[in-house]
Amino acid sequence: MPAQYAGLIAFEDDLAFFWPEERYITIDELIDDLDRAVQFPGLTNAWTMPIKGRMDMIATGIRTPVGLKISGADLETIEAIAVEVEEHLTTVPGARSVYAERTAGGYFLDIDWDRKELARYGISVKHIQSIIQTAIGGVNITQTVEGLERYTVNLRYQRDFRNDLDSLKRVLVPLQGGAHVPISQLAKLQILQGPPMIKSENARLNGWVFLDIEGVDLGSYVDGARQVVAEQVELPAGYSLSWSGQYEYMERARARLAVVGPITIVTIVLLLFVSFRSMTEVLIIMGTLPTALIGGIWLLYLLGYNMSVAVGVGFIALAGVAAETGVVMLIYLELAYRKYRERYGD
Question: Which of 134, 154, 246, 267 is deepest in the core (most CB within 10 A)?
Answer without folding.
Answer: 246
